[in-house]
Design a protein that fits this description.
The protein has 368 residues and is of the alpha/beta class. It is 43% helix and 18% strand. The chain folds into 2 domains: 183 residues, 3-Layer(aba) Sandwich (Rossmann fold); 179 residues, 3-Layer(aba) Sandwich (Rossmann fold). A 7-stranded parallel β-sheet has the order 3-2-1-4-5-6-7. A 6-stranded parallel β-sheet has the order 10-9-8-11-12-13, with helices on both faces. Helix 1 runs parallel beside helix 2, helix 8 packs across helix 12 and helix 11 packs across helix 13. The longest helix is centred in the last third of the chain and has 18 residues. The two termini are 15 Å apart.
């Protein structure tokens, strides 16, 4: 068995963490090789490329780079991939994004679509994802990452299976210090810090953060919110927070390995309208951070309200406000939730089990 896996790549985030780790574990546990083909844009930053290459080297995973195809060279790139598949004697073609799914169409090979969910951010993205949804019937298997996603996919595809995200403490990058964060953003040492990791796009619901921080009860507290992530809404949100005079709302922009800042936070906050099973959430749980999250997608599968985190309605700013005031004023509660979160993350999201399940999916796909 030998795998060629297509992965759209703009920075090393949640899906990348899973895919690189799975490839490394498959090699370590079962001596099965995976070659990652990273489809990137011309805007890829050197630092983001270097992180991917370092992770591949550390895991003994081979990776190659292809400029993401446009309309005029799409079929040329697809033929190159087919030639690579045949000459490299690969047995499986795995796609981890809509560009890879479209490139895989009509290729006479065993194909698996490994999906973390659709996240339309623009008209162009919505068109791509509309095409993608109609292309998945050609795959031998469609793999999703949460029970909620599985139920949604079952309504559309017959051959769909579950492979839950998993993390270990070793997956976390070396952590920055609280002092580094305070100095970088000029935050008082006595402040409480909320933190979010995620691109600034509609499905992540960053405007809810603006609404929460505008609440008079939050304004009068020394509470800062640092959100790491770039995206289409960055400029609009910066202008909005300036208009509303929200100096304590900090949109920090794109940050390579943003999870290295998790240790500096008091509370991890996730405001999404839709999710699969977000890696940032698992990273925060492993970091013993109390979790405050919207109750969407696969999140309730790992967060039990008031036991290992607090869940709120995805559009209920007042619920978030109440929980933030509670968590920032009750350190013992925050500590208990953080410890319970780490314990459940370690118990429910084992990398060994995930790798074994991935191997079963590969074998099942080969038999079809």
């Amino acid at each position: 068995m030998k795998i060629l896996q297509l992965l759209p790549y703009s920075f090393y985030g949640g899906p990348e963490t899973q895919i690189f780790s799975l490839a490394a574990e498959l090699r370590r546990q079962f001596q099965i090789e995976t070659e990652l083909v990273l489809l990137h844009s011309s805007a890829l930053k050197d630092q983001d490329r270097a992180i991917a290459e370092q992770r591949a080297l550390a895991g003994g995973v081979r990776c190659s780079w292809i400029l993401s195809p446009g309309i005029f060279n799409f079929f040329k790139i697809r033929q190159q991939l087919l030639t690579r598949f045949q000459t490299g004697q690969f047995t499986h073609l795995v796609s981890s994004g809509y560009v890879g799914d479209l490139l895989s169409q009509n290729l006479p090979v065993t194909k698996i679509a490994y999906h973390h969910g659709w996240t339309a951010q623009s008209l162009k993205m919505r068109v791509y994802e509309w095409l993608d949804q109609r292309s998945l019937s050609q795959f031998n298997q469609v793999v999703c990452v949460s029970e909620a996603q599985l139920e949604a996919f079952k309504k559309i595809y017959a051959k769909v299976t579950l492979l839950k995200n998993a993390l270990t403490l070793e997956d976390l990058p070396a952590q920055k210090t609280r002092t580094e964060l305070l100095q970088r953003f000029k935050i008082p040492s006595t402040a409480k810090i909320l933190m979010s990791l995620g691109r600034l796009s509609p499905e992540k619901n960053p405007e809810l953060a603006i609404e929460i921080m505008s609440d008079p009860k939050i304004r009068q507290q020394e509470i800062y919110w640092v959100w790491f992530g770039g995206g289409l809404e960055f400029q609009k949100l910066q202008e909005l927070k300036t208009t509303l005079k929200l100096e304590k709302m900090i949109f920090a922009g794109h940050e390579p390995l943003a999870s290295q800042w998790l240790a500096t936070a008091d509370v991890f906050v996730l405001t999404s309208l839709t999710e699969g099973l977000p890696i940032a959430l698992l990273e925060a749980m492993l970091s013993k951070k109390p979790i405050l999250s919207s109750s969407v997608g696969g999140i309730p599968e790992v967060i039990e309200n008031s036991r290992n985190g607090i869940l709120c309605g995805s559009k209920m700013a007042h619920e978030f406000v109440r929980a933030i005031l509670q968590l920032t004023s009750q350190p013992e509660l925050s500590r208990q939730l953080g410890e319970a979160g780490q314990k459940s993350a370690l118990q429910k999201n084992e990398r060994k089990t995930q790798t074994e399940n991935w191997l079963k999916i590969l074998k099942t796909s080969s038999a079809e």
